[in-house]
Amino acid sequence: MSTRLASSQDLFTYGSLMCEDIMAEVAGLRLGCTPAVLAGYRRFLVRDEQYPGVIESPTGTVAGIVYHGLVPEAWSRLDRFEGEMYDRRPVTVRYNNDACGVVDCYVFRSEFAHRLTATEWDFAAFLRGGKALFQSQYCGFNAID
Q1: For residue 75, what are the domain limits?
Q2: Does some domain include residue 127?
Q3: Is position 3 within any domain?
Q4: Does residue 142 lie within any of the structural domains?
């Protein structure tokens, strides 16, 4: 988990946090968001979980959502939620209007790569069945604080 101060007020999400309700619960507030694409990465399912991790891959692209205007408390909550398998780092994303921006992203740490499956994570499949299971397993910050 990253302990540095946020270099951005924006976050690219590519998994469970693409769901605005899950993001609001984790971050502790509702945020504006914009669809975006992250080039140079691929997204794989984490073994025995409903969520993915992204790793660098020169020919890959990952569709996701950028949330705007995160405050320090939200970053703190997100860092705790993502845990030790992810490192928060700046990445460049492309928005639908072809504009680019540098935002933060939780990238899967290489020392945990053995936890990734060979299965590309599918957001539509997550919405069909994985989301309900994920939400039933996530106890939320109110239960763990």
Answers
A1: 11-134
A2: yes
A3: no
A4: no
| Residues 64-118: tens digit of each pLDDT | 999 999 999 999 999 999 999 999 999 999 999 999 999 999 999 999 999 999 9
User: Per-residue pLDDT tens for 8-59?
Assistant: 799 999 999 999 999 999 999 999 999 999 999 999 999 999 999 999 999 9
In a domain, 58, yes or no: yes
Burial state string for 46-56 with b = 16 or more CB within 10 A and e = fewer than 16: beebbbbbbbe
pTM of the model: 0.90
Half-sphere exposure of 85 (CA within 13 A, CB side): 16
Look at the chain and report how many structural domains it folds into. 1
